Amino acid sequence: AEITTGCSGADLEHLVAESARLAAKEHAPAITLTHIEESFDRIALGIKKNRDCKKEDLKRTAYHEAGHTTIALLTNHPIYKTTIISRSDTLGVMMTKEQDKNQNKDDLLNNIMMSQGGMCAEQLIFGNYDSGVISDLKHARKIANAMVKELGMGKGILEGATIDSSSSREMVKQFDDEVLNILRHCKNKTGNLLQQNKTLLESIAEALLEQETLSEEDIYCIASKY
Fold this sequence. Notes:
By secondary structure, the chain is mainly alpha-helical. The protein contains 8 helices and 3 strands; from the N terminus they run αααββααααβα. It has helices at about 10-25, 35-45, 55-75, 105-125, 135-150, 170-195, 200-210, 215-225, and strands at about 80-85, 95, 215. A 3-stranded antiparallel β-sheet has the order 2-1-3. Helix 1 packs across helix 2 (about 35-45) and helix 5 (about 135-150) packs across helix 6. The chain starts with 8 loop residues before the first helix and ends with a helix.
């Protein structure tokens, strides 16, 4: 129930049908939570893929996902699991539980920081980041754009204002500048948080390299030591 918040009846029917196929394939006497979780991951992310991955690339992926996970922990966002197992186009993923509530400005800023966590972790550990961060950066910008241009969460004269076709070129520029300000502010805060909690970041990354997948319980067990 926790991982399917927001799913429609048709989504749940699809999930259970896929779980039943997995159970039947294994000749299991009943559908278990393991079948449901694997089916959920297949539907959300795709089927597992065996990829030849260099040790250094795997380490980068582990720190990238550990970055997302560390920021989620520090911003009190409920985590479902983190994995470095490849699925479809993803080398790894940190999945959070959907929250059935409206989000305020702080919630949205935390979401931007979670999106930037992988990039900032790579910068902290390796001194740079690679092209794998592109989807994270697009997601962060999408949130910041919505905050400023649709929800009126900009500062100063932009507070409470939204953009439309009648907005002047000068006003559009002010909106764009505010979006960049939010992204820069969040990136700086994310980088600082990871620097301050580097030991936690390293512990999560090392656990991922050892176990490949960390459950909610695994992650909070690691976090409880810090």
